[in-house]
Amino acid sequence: MAETHTPPQPFTLRLRRYDPESGDAPYWDEHTIELEPHRSVLEAILQARDRFDGSIGIRCSCRQAICGSCGVRINGEPALACHTHLDAARDGAPNGAIEIEPMGNMPVIKDLIVDMDAVHWTKVQRVTPWLLNKEPIPEREYIVPRESMIDVTQTMACIQCGACVSDCLAMEVDPGFIGPAALAKAYRFVGDPRDAERHERLLDLSVDQQGIYDCTHCFKCVQACPKGVNPMGQIMRLRRIAGSDEHITDPNNGHRHEEAFATLIKDYGLLHEAELIPRSYGGDSWFGKFHPRAGRELLSSLPTAFRGILRRKINPKIALLGHKLKPNDLKAVKGIYEKVESRPERYELNLYITGEDEDNA
Q: The whole model's pTM is what?
């Protein structure tokens, strides 16, 4: 069989340049390089640096999507430069020019290099990222169930590239949020049966206002992760274990809010906005609105509700009375709840265990 070879093609790189020490504002810098389409964006950046401008700043090491050093934003999306082919990047580029920027939510040191220590590694250290072993320590090794170790293997696949941190919307609004990478690392030890501080770890992350209940379920970290770690899924596991298994009552009302949300969907088929706040703060029933805490929260939310009504983002009738589903549709929703709640134990979907996300049988 004859060997096929694609000749080099011209590719235009549009690099976001910035040097904080210069005092100048960020600017775009374009270079045209020639490489085979299957070559990586990282190789293109290095060629531009070698041939046109040796001052281009880029961090890289392994070039095999293992070390996580070359994380950048390509055409607005976080990616590993060494793991992104030039032809694929050009297909998604505006006007044919591949746009490359530094990652978000972290200060820029120079050009495409961000300060990982200032944000990413500081937050990872926050969750005590090491095993606190149970006593007594066995003479040889700990014997643990195979499923438990396969479970935490998903979080162990993280290469600390910071792509999830870069795209986290919660961190954009609240930079103090512990963040998806650090919380995924936290699950690695919460899910490890050898760790002696599971409850203490979960309590710490639950009571922290910028902990596990600060995540907004935006799925951006899931899409950004190049290794399938599913950081948001690990955060949701931390929540379920903290609230349902360890029975931790957090002062942030995160677990009560989730319970009220689930109950309202079960009862109405759709979310009943007017009932969500009182049930989250006063109790998961119709009488929750009479609790003093619920009353205070309802009063504090009135300005937001009025603004929504004035801007026609809220329909007062639907907000107060709730959405109405057809009886058959509501019955179908309840059937889903009955099926899930009838299981003898909680089922956690983990592709590292099942190996697939659907039943082919």
A: 0.88
